[in-house]
Amino acid sequence: MAKELKDLTKRSVDYSRWYNELVVKADLAEQSDVRGCMVIKPYGYAIWETLQHELDLRFKKTGVKNAYFPLLIPKSYLSREAEHVEGFAKECAVVTHYRLKTNEEHTGVVVDPAARLEEELIIRPTSETIIWNTYKNWIHSWRDLPVLCNQWCNVMRWEMRTRLFLRTSEFLWQEGHTAHATREEAEERAKLMLDVYADFARDILAIPVVRGVKSETERFAGALDTYTIEAMMQDGKALQSGTSHFLGQNFGRAFDVKFVNKENKEEYAWATSWGVSTRLMGALIMTHSDDNGLVLPPHVAPLQVVIVPIFKGPEIEMFDTVLGALAERLEARGVRVKYDNADNKRPGFKFADYELKGVPVRVVVGGRDLENGTCEVMRRDTLEKETLPFEGIEDHIVALLEEMQTAIYNKAKERLDANIFECNDYEEFKERVKDGGFFLCPWDGTAETEAQIKADTQATIRCVPYGVSQDNLGVDMVSGKPAVARVVIARSY
Asked: Between 3.30.110.30, 3.30.420.10, 3.30.390.10, 1.10.10.650, what CATH number should domain 420-490 receive?
C-alpha cells in the first residue's frame, strides 16, 4: 500500500483533517505562498475542466453565451449600489499604484509613490458593477433584450480563515449575468439557472441537493431573492453549492441601464446573476470519498478507467498489443481511459495510487489472465473485484460506469434523506444539531430569531425549501411567535 494511503486520517477520527489531507495527498491542490490562495494541480484542474465543460454545455442550451469582463473595477462603481458595496466592502483587495521602482540600495523593488492611481481599482469580488456599467452601452430597446452572458474567471475575496477549495481568497468560478425586459422573465431565468445547477449536481456530480430560497439575512448583497442548492456532506454539515439571484432593477437603476419597451416607454432593465465555484470540488470530495481516498462519480472523473498489466519484461509487447487495443476500443466508446504500462512503478503502487485518486474502474491483466482470456475488474466505489472474460469486456465496462454513477448518487441520496429531521422543540434542536443533519423547523421570519439560533448553535437558516409543506406551521421554536415558514437549519461550511 502506498505511504500516502497509509497515512490518510480516518473520517471517524477527524473528518476535517481527513479532508485537508486528502486534497493534498490525492494531488488535487496545495497551499500557495500567497496567503489564502491555492495552487490547483493538474489532476485537480482536470476534474475542474470536466465539471466546467459539462456545465458550460448546459448553460449554452438555455441560450447563454460566454464573454469576458475586466479583473479590475473602479472603486466608484462599487459605491453605486449601497447594499452591494456593504456586502463586499470588507473582502475587497485594492490596487492603489501602477508602478514599482528599484530601492535605493538596488537590492529589490518598492512601490513608486509617484505612481498612485487617481482612483483605486478593486480586484473583482464579483462582477455585477462592471458588467452593468457595460450593459448600459448595449441595451437601448426591448429588441436588445434579453442579454444572457456568462464568464469563467477568477475572483478575489479576502478571507481570514481559508481551506483548500472550500474557502480561499482567490477562487475560480463562473458568473452569469442576464438583463431582461420584465420582472417575470428575470425571475424565471433566476429559477431556471438554479434548476440547471441542481440537475448538474445530480447527473454529473451525483450529489443530491435541497433547493430553496434564502432568508433576507442570507441572500446575496443587492438581490431581492437568492435561490440556493444545499448539499449535505458526510458529517451532516451543509455546503451551499450554487446560488442564483433575482436582482430586480437595482443594478439597472444604479448604472442607468434603460430601454424603450414595447409601449414606447422608458424603463430600467431587470437583472439576474448566478454562479458556482471551485467549492464544488470540496462538495464532490466530502460527499463521496472514503478512507481509501477519492471516490469520483464516472461522469466527472477525468480518468474513468485505468488498465494495468502485470508482466515480466519480454511479455510487454504482447500486453501492449492486446491491452492497447482495448484502450482504443474504450476511447471509441467515449470512455476516458489510460493504459498504464510504465515499468518504473510496481503494480501495487499503481493500484494504491489510482485508488487514492478515485479512478472509477481498474482493469488488471496478468500473464495467466492473458492465457485464459480473462481480466480482473475492480470498481472504486465498493472496492469489489470480479474476474471476467476478456472478450467483450468493453461492453461490461461501459455499463458498469453508468451503474456506478447511479449507485454513488443513490448512496448519497439515502444519506441525505436519512438525516433530514422535523424538529419543533428548541432544546431538542440545540442538542441534536451538534451531530449534524438538516432540521426542518418553524420560523417566525425575523432576523432576531435567526441571529439567536446562530449565536446558540453555530447553525444557520440554509433556505426555505421547495417541496416541503408550509401548512399548519404552528409557532417558532425560539420565540414562540406564529411561524411564517418551515426552514432548513444546519451547521455549514
From this structure: 3.30.110.30
Cα 84 to Cα 148: distance, rounded to the nearest angstrom: 21
C-alpha cell recorded at residue 90: 470588507
Burial of 446 (0-12, 13-18, 19+ CB in 10 A): middle
Neighbours of 264 (CB within 10 A): 8
105-138 pLDDT, tens digit per residue, is 999 999 999 999 999 999 999 999 999 999 999 9
Cβ proximity of 479 and 446 under 8 Å? yes
pLDDT score, position 5: 55
Judge whether 271 and 41 are in contact, CB under 8 Å: no
- Answer whether 115's CB lies under 8 Å from 29's CB: no
Answer for the pair 16, 9: CB distance below 8 angstroms, yes or no.
Answer: no
- In the numeric block, the cell 458568473 is attached to 175
* Amino acid letter, 51: L
CA-closest candidate to residue 417, choices 241, 278, 273, 232: 232
Structural contact between residues 68 and 151, judged by C-beta atoms closer than 8 angstroms = yes
- Rounded to an integer, what distance in angstroms lies between the CA atom of residue 415 and that of residue 236? 9
Instruction: Indicate if the alpha-carbon torsion angle 195, 285, 409, 458 is positive or negative.
Output: negative
Write out pLDDT tens, residues 245-268: 999 999 999 999 999 999 999 999
Angle of CA points 70, 76, 82, to nearest 5°: 110
Q: Is 248 left (phi over 0), alpha (psi -120 to 50) or beta?
A: left
**Is 442:463 a contact under the CB 8 Å cutoff?**
no
- Domain 6-73+127-288 in CATH: superfamily? Bira Bifunctional Protein; Domain 2 (3.30.930.10)
